[in-house]
Design goal:
single chain; mainly alpha
Length: 93
């Protein structure tokens, strides 16, 4: 295992700030700390979500913004994907 991979794993373990979704009514909803938006993006494109992942995808799709650790914007990208032209396919799964 190379040093870069070890550092990434350590950073992942040390991340304690949850992803917080802001809904249309202004309420904020944290996602579980174990949520991996990169993995969810892959799952959304394949349409292979389990029930827990599907709930997270539904919440992200319904949100209007998010706050991620270190100012990331992956959840924003995921929301755009879920609410874009593929929405019809996403809703059928």
């Amino acid at each position: 295992m190379n040093i870069k991979r070890r550092i990434e794993q350590l950073e992942h373990k040390l991340t304690t700030d949850p992803i917080v979704l802001t809904m249309a009514d202004g309420t904020e909803m944290p996602l579980p700390l174990s949520t991996d938006p990169f993995k969810l993006l892959g799952i959304a494109t394949k349409g292979t979500a389990n029930p827990s992942q599907q709930r997270q995808l539904d919440l992200i799709a319904q949100s209007v913004s998010s706050r991620e650790p270190d100012g990331a914007h992956l959840v924003d990208l995921l929301r755009a994907y879920l609410n874009g032209p593929v929405r019809e396919r996403y809703l059928q799964n």
